Amino acid sequence: MTDRARSIVVGVDGSSHSAAAASWAAEDAHLRLRPLHLVMVDNNWARTADAEQIVQDLADRCRMQSPQVTVTEEVVPGHPAEVLISHSTRADMIVVGSRGRGGFAGTHLGSVSSSVAIHSSCPVVVARTEAGATGPVVVGLDTSPLSRHVLEFALEAAAVRKLGLVVMQVWRRPEHDDVFATPITLPSPADIDEAMRRRLAEQVAGHGEKYPDVRIRKVAQHGHPVSALAEASRKAELVVVGHRGRGGFKGMLLGSVASGVLHHAHCPVAVVRIPSASD
Fold first, then answer.
1. Tens digits of per-residue pLDDT, 202-237?
2. What residue stretches are annotated with the UspA domain (predicted)?
3. Which class does domain 137-273 fall in?
4. What does the alpha-carbon distance between residue 232 and residue 236 come to, in Å, rounded to a whole number?
5. Which of 193, 221, 235, 236 is the most interior residue, by most CB within 10 Å?
6. 96, 88 Cβ separation under 8 angstroms
7. Which long-range contacts (CB under 8 A, 24 or more apart) does 207-213 make?
8. In this structure, are residues 125 and 34 in contact, taking their beta carbons and an 8 Å threshold?
9. What contacts 24+ positions apart, CB below 8 Å, involve 80-83?
10. How far apart are CA 226 and CA 69, in angstroms?
11. pLDDT tens digits, residue range 23-41?
């Protein structure tokens, strides 16, 4: 079997959504000098020839789109999410469509993309049938030092596309601690906003030196993270968020944030696994 290490792997099913994912991946493979591998999961051996023709046709379209990219393809049995998660241990990136045709083959790709995003060992991009705007890359960060992995992915994505990068940190003012009989005194929104701006500046400091051509804009604002990132996605080419892996999203409300952004973004979304401190 051909070595898939460092390939961009795309889950396809013959739907327009998976075709959009393959097209996005072919362009990214060209920009980042990676091989491209298309995977179609089909457990019905009676229609294997049809599945092979579908993935072959899509691979040929990718070769025409990005002739410099090495493109391979395969049809395999199994569960779609499990197959892609297995590939993720050696792949550079997994790319899926936002939903399938009730195929892939026979499973709704929305559930597949969600499962792969949670459990993948490498970054996952959920593509859209509609192209993102010609705008910057947008990344949402929490306050964890380990979120630098998300920032580094976003910086590289912006650099290869020759785009700017918007780094966002969105905070919500707590009401009060219900443990106490009386509300506790909270910092003013202005004080929190200023503290978040300082913290964000500290997080970003030094990371841009590796990508001097990427113009970085820092945004720290009060609001709901999902709403803010979804709104920013209207004018973005790619939105990047992080997750903690190992069965779920955590941190910065990242359970709801990553899931919410995947559901409501208007452009492709990259989900980057944040390693634990013990990794």
1. 889 888 888 999 999 999 888 899 999 999 999 999
2. 6-128, 136-273
3. alpha beta
4. 6
5. 236
6. no
7. 207/148, 207/151, 207/152, 207/155, 208/155, 210/155, 211/155, 211/156, 211/158, 211/159, 213/159, 213/162
8. no
9. 80/11, 80/13, 80/41, 80/104, 80/107, 80/109, 80/112, 81/107, 81/111, 81/112, 81/115, 81/116, 81/119, 83/11, 83/39, 83/41
10. 35
11. 999 999 999 999 999 999 9
Which two tokens mark 45?
């051996």
End-to-end CA gap in the chain: 30
Low-confidence ranges of the chain (pLDDT < 70): 1-5, 46, 100-110, 131-132, 173-186, 245-255, 276-279
Phi, psi of 165 (to 5 degrees): -125, 130
DSSP H/E element including 23: helix 16-32
Domain residue ranges of the chain, discontinuous segments joined by +? 8-127, 137-273
Cβ-based burial of 36 (10 A; exposed 0-12, middle 13-18, buried ≥19):
buried
Closest CA to 241 of 158, 172, 157, 142: 142
Look-up of token digits 């890359």: 137
Same fold, 8-127 and 137-273: yes
Q: What share of the chain is helix, strand, coil (3-state, %, to 5)?
A: 40, 20, 40
CB atoms within 10 A of CB 25: 30
For position 88, what pLDDT does the model report?
Answer: 96
Quick check: 247 and 114 in contact, CB under 8 A?
no
Please name the residue that has the structure tokens 């590939």: 87
